């Protein structure tokens, strides 16, 4: 099985050269999500999924790579659960996350970092407004009742 350090290295390499909407290195987001999972009491399988949560969705790693990787079935299931599919309705996406053991915590950490006001502040107003509404809607669909940045969201 890959260690967390090896998973981190794979994730960083897979997203090398990518930036987020604010122009920051994408690895900063991956690190923040993995740390957010840990801070919320997530286990090593969930932390590994935090590092890899966008890898398949962003085509940084293939489904075939994930399938053959030396990762637990649970980690693979979480990564696939939080991977949005083209044209997928938010309700369907949220239901898959809720059905997959351990996935909600990873998505909660992802949403918390995505909705961080400091991160959003550098975006122009229309983009900031659109993303804020998108993240709030997903939190509601997942039954998360606060903004989640402090790790104390209630479900």
Keywords, separated by commas or semicolons:
single chain, 155 residues, mainly alpha, 9 helices, disordered C terminus
3D structure, described in words:
The chain is built from nine helices and no strands. The model is unreliable at 148-155 (pLDDT under 50). 60% of the residues lie in helices and 0% in strands. It is mostly helical. The chain has helices at 4-14, 26-39, 44-52, 63-68, 73-81, 90-99, 103-114, 117-120, 125-142.
Computed structural class: mainly alpha
Rg, please?
15 Å
**Biggest sheet character:** none
End-to-end gap: 32 Å
Element order: H for helix, E for strand: HHHHHHHHH
Number of helices: 9
Oligomerization category of the chains in this entry: single chain
Average residue-wise pLDDT? 93
Contiguous uncertain segments of 5+ residues: 148-155
Strand fraction band?
Answer: under 5%
Task: Describe the secondary-structure layout.
Layout: H1 4-14, H2 26-39, H3 44-52, H4 63-68, H5 73-81, H6 90-99, H7 103-114, H8 117-120, H9 125-142
Summarize the model shown:
With 155 residues, the chain is mainly alpha-helical.
């Amino acid at each position: 099985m890959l260690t967390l350090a090896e998973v981190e290295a794979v994730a960083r390499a897979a997203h090398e050269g990518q930036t987020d909407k604010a122009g920051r290195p994408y690895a900063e987001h991956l690190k923040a999500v993995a740390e957010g999972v840990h801070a919320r009491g997530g286990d090593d399988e969930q932390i590994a999924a935090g590092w890899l949560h966008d890898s398949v969705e962003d085509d940084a790693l293939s489904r075939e790579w994930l399938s053959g990787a030396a990762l637990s079935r649970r980690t693979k299931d979480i990564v696939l659960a939080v991977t949005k599919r083209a044209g997928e309705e938010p309700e369907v996406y949220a239901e898959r996350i809720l059905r997959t053991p351990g996935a909600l915590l990873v998505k909660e950490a992802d949403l918390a970092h995505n909705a961080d006001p400091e991160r959003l502040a550098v975006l122009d107003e229309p983009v900031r407004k659109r993303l804020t509404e998108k993240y709030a809607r997903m939190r509601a669909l997942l039954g998360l009742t606060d903004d989640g940045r402090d790790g104390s969201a209630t479900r």
